[in-house]
Amino acid sequence: MPTKSRSTDCPVNDVAFSGREQGHVPVYAQINDHAMFLTGVSASRFYRDPIAFTEIELLVAEYYGFDLPLLMWDVYNIEAEAIGQKLKFHRHNMPDIDQTRPLVRREADLDRVRLDRPGATGRLPQFLASMVLYQRYCGMEPTPILCAPFSLACGIRSYLGLISDIKLRPAFAHELLCRICDDVLVPWYRVLHQTVPGATCIVVADAWASPPNVSMRIFEEYVEPYVMRLEGAIAPMDLHVGTIGYWGESHLKNPAAFLEAKARISEHVPLGLMCYDPDVERLGVKVYKDVATAHDRLLTLGIDALLLRSGTARAITQRVRQYIRDGAQGGRLALFLNNLTVDTPPSHIFLAVAAARTLGQYPIQQHLDSLVVRVPRQESFGEFVHRKQENNSEGYTFAWLDKSRFSGKQNAIRGSI
């Protein structure tokens, strides 16, 4: 990734990603449903229109001052839908897979697990368009985030169906995962790489493969080998794959073993070793920092979405302070705001960012409790959008405004959310 995004005008590599102790601990977030709420754009438009999705995600990232703008589509659905899996679209939030109608119901359905026209079915064209728009607007390479083999198998077979296969028909489960890798993901990645050749790592999310959903035996036999199968298939293209989204290690007697496995299959992820609340809050930062340091990796700590939505200002600030105090030694720490809900108060998000800026300035001070976090007065999102229209250096179209809460009267923008 280049070192600067035009949209945020913030360095995203020269601080945490380089390992040097300079600047501040960066912060970024998953913002999909929250971004839809700020704009009032429907989920149908947001998740089907690449211009709307990309511009809104980037604008909201800039509005809050995130250091790295990410495009996180409904990552568990993209490939599943492209091969025929039915989805449920909702009015105000992210679509999800219809688990009552799995694509693979019986062994004969394995022949349906193929991508006949890579990049041309479902919403794959919209995803590709979004990656190209990200390049144009940000002046940096995108980080494509999609679905890992195990979680894709859960999507098209159902979680209960796949776990049953693993116990009763292991050969069938392995064949399903092989076909997902060889006949769906590798052809798709080839087209993706041709479209955005500068993106050197495809990040795949794999929340279904988290404890207690899976045991370490299942992880080592049905999760890790298929990530490595993908890596082996695409490495000749100078392309890599790495995983995120695993949680639940606090349920294990030996969480360090699971963290080691996570580290092995996330080696190429630009976002580093990503670990999330509530596990981090329960286990403490040290166990995560030790693994990240041993693997010479950036550590990204995800802050609880419930805390960000409903916590007090003191509790939010204290969580940020604790993670910086325990995790920023030697640099290579980033903070991630876990999936922000539609009703997360903007003031809480601005507070988390301000806390990271104040408490996370390198060199990290020894007495962080003495530092006061102040949140500058913020304009409304509507005022921000109006200002961006007047100074549109990125070249946004704002074509989605006609179906947003800002449509109609121009002056209505100024006093909005």
Write the layout of secondary structure elements.
Elements: E1 27-29, H1 32-39, H2 43-46, H3 50-64, H4 78-82, E2 87-88, E3 96-97, H5 124-138, E4 145-147, H6 149-157, H7 159-168, H8 170-195, E5 201-205, H9 216-234, E6 240-244, H10 255-264, E7 273-276, H11 279-283, H12 285-294, E8 299-303, H13 305-310, H14 313-327, E9 333-337, H15 346-359, H16 381-390
Parallel strand pairs: 1-9, 4-5, 5-6, 7-8, 8-9
Antiparallel strand pairs: 2-3
Report what the structure shows.
- The chain is of the alpha/beta class.
- Helix content is 43%, strand content 8%.
- It contains 16 helices and 9 strands.
- It has helices at residues 32-39, 43-46, 50-64, 78-82, 124-138, 149-157, 159-168, 170-195, 216-234, 255-264, 279-283, 285-294, 305-310, 313-327, 346-359, 381-390; strands at 27-29, 87-88, 96-97, 145-147, 201-205, 240-244, 273-276, 299-303, 333-337.
- The strands form 3 sheets. Strands 1-9-8-7 form a 4-stranded parallel sheet. A 3-stranded parallel sheet has the order 4-5-6.
- A hairpin with a 7-residue loop joins strand 2 and strand 3.
- The longest helix is centred in the middle third of the chain and has 26 residues, at 170-195.
